[in-house]
Amino acid sequence: MNDQEEAALSLIQSHRQGVRQSDLWKLLEIDSRKCSRIVKRLLDSGLIERIEFREEGIKTYLLRAKKRAIDPSVILAGTEILPCIGCDQECTPEECAMLLDWIYQLALEEYQE
User: Fold this and answer.
1) Largest CA distance in the chain
2) Which of 73, 89, 90, 105 could tie 77 with a disulfide, CB 3.0–4.6 Å?
3) Which DSSP string do the residues of 15-78 spell out, in sequence order?
4) The model's pTM
5) Element holding 81 (H helix, E strand)
6) Using the 8-state DSSP alphabet, how is residue 84 labeled?
7) In the predicted model, is pLDDT for residue 30 greater than 80?
8) Are strands 48-55 and 76-77 parallel, antiparallel or unpaired?
9) Residue 68, CA distances (Å) to 13, 43, 46 in order
10) To the nearest whole number, what is the mean pLDDT of the chain?
11) How far apart are CA 6 and CA 23, in angstroms?
12) How far is CA 10 from CA 48, 74, 75, 103, 113, in A?
């Protein structure tokens, strides 16, 4: 992925409701044809979705980032899942004993390998 594609994807991801394709090229400060090619590559790679959108009778497209599945190994330390997933406590991560224990377990696994 080139720099402009990364910038476009980042911009689309930063807008939860999506970005109109007619606005994207202006935000990226590129011409609309180049923007269309970038959007096509992002669509082909499955990173975004494009939804037809009408505004004041003019057809455009709303671009939204697709949610990607999380790699389970990211939230596992051995057989223990990241404690923050089901946690309902108000805490700061730097002071959370459960999180620190989980990180310690993760570091221990890395060291043993």
Assistant:
1) 63
2) 105
3) -TT-EEHHHHHHHHTS-HHHHHHHHHHHHHTTSEEEEEEEETTEEEEEEEEPPPPPPGGGGEET
4) 0.60
5) strand 80-81
6) G
7) yes
8) unpaired
9) 12, 14, 9
10) 87
11) 17
12) 11, 21, 23, 29, 35
Closest Cα to residue 68, out of 42, 89, 87? Answer: 42
CA dihedral 18, 44, 47, 54 (to 10 degrees): 10
Q: Which CATH number fits domain 3-65: 3.40.190.10, 3.40.50.12780, 1.10.10.10, 2.30.30.100?
A: 1.10.10.10
Residue 46: count other Cβ atoms within 10 Å of its Cβ: 9
Which tokens sit at 21?
A: 């394709």
Q: Which tokens hold the place of 34?
A: 């180049």
Relative to beta strand 76-77, strand 80-81 is: antiparallel
Q: 60-112 pLDDT, tens per residue?
A: 899 999 987 767 667 777 777 888 877 888 888 888 888 888 888 878 877 77
Q: Provide the residue ranges of all domains of the chain, joining segments of one domain with +.
A: 3-65, 72-112
